[in-house]
Amino acid sequence: MAKIFSRYGDGTPLELDEKELMEELHAGTEDAADRAKVSTLTDDDLKHLYEILASPYKFVSVEPGKEVLLTYDAGTLKIRRVGVNVDRIQALQIYEKIMGADTMELCHVDYSYKPLKPIVTMEQPILEQALLSTHIPLFYGAMPNLGLYSQPDGPFPNPAELLPNGKIKEARESLEQTVEEAVRDIVFAGSAMYESGADGINLDSVGAAGDADFLASLMATKKLKEKYPDICIEIGMAGEFILGMHGELEFEGTRLAGLYAHDQVRLAAQAGATIFGPVVNTNTTETSAWNLARAITFMKACGEVAEIPIHPNMGMGVGAVPVNDHPPIDSVSRASAAMTSLVRLDGL
């Protein structure tokens, strides 16, 4: 039986035969369906995935006319990580004029709203100059990053230290105070950058600190939308489900802990978000086939209920893209082509 080139979730190469590849696809979709309580992929979906993964070509794409647009997070930082020593405005120009990016995001190296707040007046003229130098829609973004509000980095007691000592009430109170402070910072910085001309505001890695992080993002989004009815806000998630660090936080009657993408998107729309970026984490010890079938299962359920555009995250370590500093193009292209062709989405 012919061998098919594949990889593990960390990018390590391996070979599978036809039967093994299909078994991996079935196992991946069943895992996602069991966790999120959604439907498994259909036989036609699995056959389509098989054809993409079994392609002998290095790079796989979609049919002409079925392309989707891309949004980015922290793009002006990432280009310097690969040794291209340019400033942020030049990075934006490279993305637009050389790489053909559909949109782009300007951001600060300390990529969180808390440290951004005191220097926002220095970020505003950079954004204004960037807008004069580019044509594509330009977002300004950062992370809610509620971890920065806990001691020793912030003013509030650290829940990660309180919880192991059984101080659950105190940990919850700290998280609730953190939410209030984070919302103020996000609204302050988001307002300043939107009024300076940003085409959109991006909240990136939402939920990284658990349900309090997600709540702060939803509340800030709602406040910004009430303040600026035409504002474009993208909420990009950090993980596939919401960690219950508090456990009892709710947004407009819905408990946040444990929610998967198909429930997260409903709340994002309810808060006023324009674009939602759902996430599925890559498992490094499983195959690309397993990871991809699993990711598609989560995202297909999300797309079916979404009332706003969704842009599934397809970066390193999410969306079946390997956890690797230089994700292999064979894996990235296959994951992107599969996501685009099987999920009801508007971009990546």
UniProtKB/TrEMBL annotation:
**Keyword field:** Methyltransferase, Transferase
- The question of whether DNA-binding is a record keyword is answered with no
Organism expressing this protein natively = Desulforhopalus singaporensis
Task: Report the InterPro entries cross-referenced here.
Answer: Dimeth_MeTrfase_MtbB (IPR012653)
GO molecular function list? methyltransferase activity
Organism superkingdom: Bacteria
Q: Which residues form a coiled coil?
A: none
Give the protein's recorded name.
Dimethylamine:corrinoid methyltransferase
Q: What NCBIfam families does this protein's entry cite? A: dimeth_PyL (TIGR02368)
GO biological processes: methanogenesis; methylation
